[in-house]
Amino acid sequence: MKHETSHPIAFIGPGGTKAPLTAHDFGSKAAQLWRMNALGLDVPPAFVLSASLCGERRAGEVRRLLEDGLAFLEAATGRRFGDRRRPLLVSVRSGAEKSMPGMLETVLDVGMTAETARGLMRLHGNPRLAFDCHRRFIEGWCEVVAGLPRAPFEQVQRDLIAAEQALSEQGLDPEALERLAARYLDLARDGYGASVPEDPRDQLAEAVEAVFRSWAAPKAVEYRRLNHLEHLAGTAVTVQAMVFGNAGVRSGSGVAFSRNPASGAPGLYADLLFDAQGEDVVSGRRQPVGLDRLGAVLPDVATALAEGVAALERHYRDVQDVEFTFEEGRLYFLQTRAAKRTPRAALKIAVDMVAEGAITPAEGLALLEGVDLSAVAATRFSGAAEPVAHGVAASPGTVSGRVAFDEEGVRRLAGAGDPVILLRPDVATDDIAALALAAGILTSVGGRTAHAAVVARQLGRACVVGCAALVIDPAARRARLGAETLGEGDWLSLDGEAGSVFMGRRAVVSEEPEAELAAVNGWRVAAPSPA
């Protein structure tokens, strides 16, 4: 089956749309998926609904487009949506013209039902995969589509984990995961009057509608305001065949940067989780591992990842932020985009790429357009002090500030004129307003590539994540940091370069990157004058 470019739907994969997709019509995510597929990288097949449908849309029109898209995916994968023996599952993802990390919604594992769970089990010979996908779909549908609060479902999961004497959901066996899915369904129905559709086509239509609807969510509106993106018209929706990072110990998901987006240092920079789906990594709710672990367990995947990410940087002539999944030792590329970076990293990256001959000086200047070069100084604390804790360095900078635990506290303390450090167990992108007001962020769990860490770098906030010594009691507005106790308004200091945490206030000194600034000035002097 062959499809040519046709508004308002496009196709990515074998027999798909021939002409490149534009970010304006189909979102930057789909445009880059099309390009990665064209470059020969392994991309799961997908179809895309245009951003033109995000405003006024007719349910009948969307349903017809979804049927066309499903027919394409079924032909490309050899699986059937809703089938009992060879079920096709899909992800439903947002994609605006400009990247908005974590601000719009995603629903994974769409097409999961009690029947397709049995089919997935037969197809893969993996009962745990089938029931894990089922409980994940119900979690995502209840939170994103039905708009139900996450906390009651998390409590149901914690109760079952405790009853099974497991350490986490990773320790639940297939039978326990099947019971967890059933308890989620009971909670949705009995607690909130919400029923998860058993018809996969109803699931898909409602998931697509929820992703379109997320364009108007408060966090998305606030992100566009902060980044001067109010002119964007809406989001496209990409529906893509699922690949399963949660298929066992030779599977996983992660995020890789072609260079360090916090410091600009060269070399691949990646976080990943084994036996996990991508949302586990970017949500910041689990603690990831690094590239060394992937190299030790699956060296062929690690090599293919490094080669693919390097190829994308060469093609786009800019630092790339790449999402990937590997299923049973096979690597798939799910997304690439220009990496959000700190001003300091932007300067070093531009200078290094010009020095390497990867880009021209004119391209280096283009990479620095809009970058505040007055904010590129490296900072450090003066004097010596012993840190009380360490975490993962996620965004550089040194800051002393008063402790707050939520947006209300950040607003109150910042309004008094003091810098504020936001303490959270993990930072969801719902916290965008608090992130924008805070001078620094410290979390108990999470990795360098979680959406919230990406946003912190973009905003230029010092950020330390994955600080295991931090235990927060949000209701009491208090926290323990090792042996120390912190209350709202107490002073704390973060070194986002080293991942170190200090009690109290500390003085800060700064150092200008004089060599890099001189190189940029040299490009400007040598640049031809405009005609």
State the gist of this model.
By secondary structure, this protein is of the alpha+beta class. Helices cover 39% and strands 23% of the residues. Helix 12 (343-356) runs antiparallel to helix 13 (361-367).
Notable features of this structure?
531 residues; alpha+beta; eight-stranded mixed sheet; five-stranded antiparallel sheet; 17 helices; 25 strands; 39% helix; disordered N terminus; PEP/pyruvate-binding domain-containing protein; ATP_grasp_subdomain_1; PEP_util_AS
Describe, in plain words, how this protein is organized in 3D.
Residues 418-499 form the PEP-utilising enzyme mobile domain. It comes from Xanthobacter aminoxidans. Pfam families: PEP-utilizers, PPDK_N. InterPro entries: ATP_grasp_subdomain_1 (IPR013815), PEP-util_enz_mobile_dom (IPR008279), PEP_util_AS (IPR018274), Phosphohistidine_dom_sf (IPR036637), PPDK_AMP/ATP-bd (IPR002192), Pyruvate_phosphate_dikinase (IPR010121). This is PEP/pyruvate-binding domain-containing protein. The protein is α+β, with helices and mostly antiparallel strands and 531 residues long. Helices cover 39% and strands 23% of the residues. The chain is built from 17 helices and 25 strands. An eight-stranded mixed sheet has the order 14-24-23-16-17-18-19-15. Strands 1-2-7-5-6 form a five-stranded antiparallel sheet. A five-stranded antiparallel sheet has the order 10-9-8-11-12. α10 (291-297) packs across α11 (299-316). The longest helix has 19 residues, at 59-77. The protein is globular. It starts with 8 loop residues before the first strand and ends in a 5-residue tail after the last helix. Residues 1-5 have low confidence and may be disordered.
